[in-house]
Amino acid sequence: MIMLWQKVAVCFCAFLGLTGVGGGAVLLASIAYYNITAGPIEPSGGEFRSLDQIALTWQNILRGCCLLVGGITGLAASTYWFRRHRKRAAGFTVLSASLMFVATFLQPPS
Known about the structure:
Number of strands: 0
Number of helices: 3
Distance between the termini: 48 Å
Shape: elongated
Radius of gyration: 17 Å
Structural class: mainly alpha
Order of helices and strands: HHH
């Protein structure tokens, strides 16, 4: 029988995973769309900063990939929590949270 704290862990990791997959996919899709339709968007260098979030830089690509992979590992962690593989689940939860943490600090300053 699955215990209450495992249900909470499954819900938390599933929410973390779905948020990461959705955010990473939308970020990478918007970078691809706007850079294909409007030409390559370069970083502003300090002037007008609204397009820095979708500029074609390695930081933005890495941020989108970290969110996407962090979301996938969060979904894997929720599966492991549900199947009661505690060591794998804890490892994947820490890996997912650390990837999301790295993605947070790669944002351009606003």
